[in-house]
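Session log. Operator J.P. requested a structure for one protein chain; no other inputs attached. Running the standard single-chain path with token output.
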Amino acid sequence: MSTTWRQRVLERNRAANARFFADQGSEHRSEDAYEEELRRHWLEAVRHYDPAAQLQEELVVRLRGEAADSGALDFRIGNALLKPLREGVSASARKDVELELTGISRGSTVLHVRPNVPEIVSDTNENLGVIDSSITDPAMRDFLKLVDAAEKEQDVRRWERIVPGLNGVVEALDKFDLSMDMRWFSLDGTVRSSHLSRRGKDYVRSLRSTEVQKTRTGITGRITELRESGVVKVKTGTSKTSPAYEIRVNPEGLIGMHLELGMTVSFIVEVSRKTDMLGHARSTEYRFLRVSDGQKRLFDEGQA
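Structure written below.
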């Protein structure tokens, strides 16, 4: 179907669109709701003439800030921004989703991005119609929901698998002191928007903050490695999958313990676990406190 033909259909239905929105009280509707109704009404009208007609998926990213006001895009911004954006959408989809830049327009700097995914081949049975969905659509909607939640400083744990992607986007925006508006256009006509300002970026950065939790525990196993820097590696079983722990010991004290490879030891250690605001362990360190009572007797007997 040619572009001219499409435009004729749109012009033919423009008056009908105007009447429709007047009846709906469109002056009180959001910009997304207005655009969504317009797209769906247009799609319905076009499919009256061509049942196979489809809308296009597109993500519009508007960058705001001094580095974007000229309407020109520094290559570094594009490289830094699109990679974590793709990673976030892919994590949401649980499948690799490639995004391609299809255009840049003015009004600050506006990026037009679309998913590069294999086309779904329609069934030859005309009664089934056209499928107005894709792998990217729910993933992109979830990403925008995450952005919206971050902007409102809400709990984002339900989207935790895609938080790293948003974290990368924020790091890219921070490099150039930018904020971002995102608008997603779905195949079925749905339009969804979200905004990430300084407030939202601050909230995302706060999720990286960590707190240290300290506990004590006992570790018993066989020494598989000794390092002069003060590390004793203890494997707790004979299986390849048995846990192994790197226990930090004061180097001077390590020499006096007379440890040997293959020796069975039982240590009391302090566990320092750093967790972020989502409850994820960022690092865990084991520090030697003392040998267990049974191990101490063995040491004393060996030194007697």
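Operator note: The chain has three domains: 1-52, 55-118+133-208, 211-303.
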